[in-house]
Amino acid sequence: MDRPLTLAILGAGARGATYADLAAKRPDVARVVAVAEPRDQVRDTFAAEHRIAPEYRFEHWRDLLGRPRLADVAVIALLDADHVAAAVALADLGYQLLLEKPMATNEADCEAIAEAVRRNGTALAITHVLRYTPYTVKLKQLLAEGAIGDIVSLQHLEPIGHYHYAHSFVRGNWHREDESSSLLLAKSCHDIDWITDVVGGRVARVSSFGSLTHFRPEAAPDGATDRCVTCPLQDTCAYSATTLYRGGLRDDGIKQYFTRIMSAGELTERAVTDALTDGPYGRCVYHGDNDVLDHQVVNLEFDGGVTTSFTLTAFTPLENRHTKIFGTGGQLTGDGRHIEVFDFRTESRTVHDTSLDEASAAGGHAGGDEAMFNAYLDALHGGRPELIVSGIDASLASHRVVFAAERARLAGAVIEL
């Protein structure tokens, strides 16, 4: 192309804002020209920052449907339940799509998106950012070079982090399955996708176990009240909203990221106090209406016999994922930044540092956000579709594994795919 790609951002929350900021770093390649966001203050702030004309500022993504196509690409960063309607409608209007994970909240809706994408020849990427990190690129290179021989099994941990879990899955948008999706789909569909990408081949069988163990009324300490601002335990509780979000006013790192979300971007004592007093993020973690799991394991068997075990849990510090890959000639151990290869023949250890440390959303997923977004832009702008490694076929296949895992958990069975 001899001009920048034009982007419409649907949903100006944390993810939509991240992609818009990344586009602003490459004005010769991409430019944000439209936004759809129901929150007036968030929409106005976003539009002013990206110099979006008033006529291209919309309250709802459906406002784009009754007019000619406004941009080359629609970046869909809406709530999970809105993905299918937006993706299908906008693909039919000729938009190319960057779709936030998960694709949709059930398998039928994922299939509907795939059908629309194929019907329209849409250039679609799912934001499976883990596929794009320098860490993953190096890890796959080492495996391809035979650093540990053939893969026999893999062990992978997603440590959600205790206050991240409380923020997103007890108080936040993903606290109830009927309003969003399962924990596995919302938090770890890209972990399952990453495992399938690293191992390669087809998943043949799935089993899974998990439950909501701790964040329940019966686990509440004596004296706990419905909201943290009125609770006599707010200074001693590990999940205190007042500690987390007021801490974000003083911390310019990850805690501030969560404080910005709960206060709609306004980092003031008044805004945080108002949100703690009246908003969902001030609720006690033991007295809410949450129902998603707080821990789960998923076991996969691939064609050819490779086995993998995946654990996601709320009960950790907020830290990088941990992986061990066991091969016929060695063992690979990774933490999202460092990769250690132990060679069975020489009994030597070699450590590779991929240099990017912060693997959370607040830190750009260890470079994955930027690498994924740039790959998508370059694929479209430069005519290089091979740069999209999270397209419809791969993403649909890994989503099917997630849905099968949930069926296995609910049925107490092993599911064959």
CATH class of the largest domain: Alpha Beta
Report how far apart the termini are. Answer: 41 Å
Note poorly predicted spans: none
> Can you name the CATH architecture of the largest domain?
2-Layer Sandwich
Secondary-structure element order, N to C: EHEHEEHEHEHEHHEHHHEEEEEEHHE
Number of strands: 15
Helix content: 25-40%
Shape: globular
Rg over alpha carbons = 22 Å
CATH topology of the largest domain: Dihydrodipicolinate Reductase, domain 2
**Binned strand content:** 15-25%
Calculate the mean pLDDT score and round it: 95
Q: What structural class results from the helix and strand content?
A: alpha/beta
User: What is the fourth-level CATH superfamily of the largest domain?
Assistant: Dihydrodipicolinate Reductase, domain 2
Pfam family, one: GFO_IDH_MocA
Protein name: Gfo/Idh/MocA family oxidoreductase
Domain Gfo/Idh/MocA-like oxidoreductase N-terminal: 7-127
Organism: Streptomyces endocoffeicus
Quick tags:
417 residues, alpha/beta, Rossmann fold, Dihydrodipicolinate Reductase, domain 2, 3 domains, 9-stranded mixed beta sheet, 6-stranded parallel beta sheet, 12 helices, 15 strands
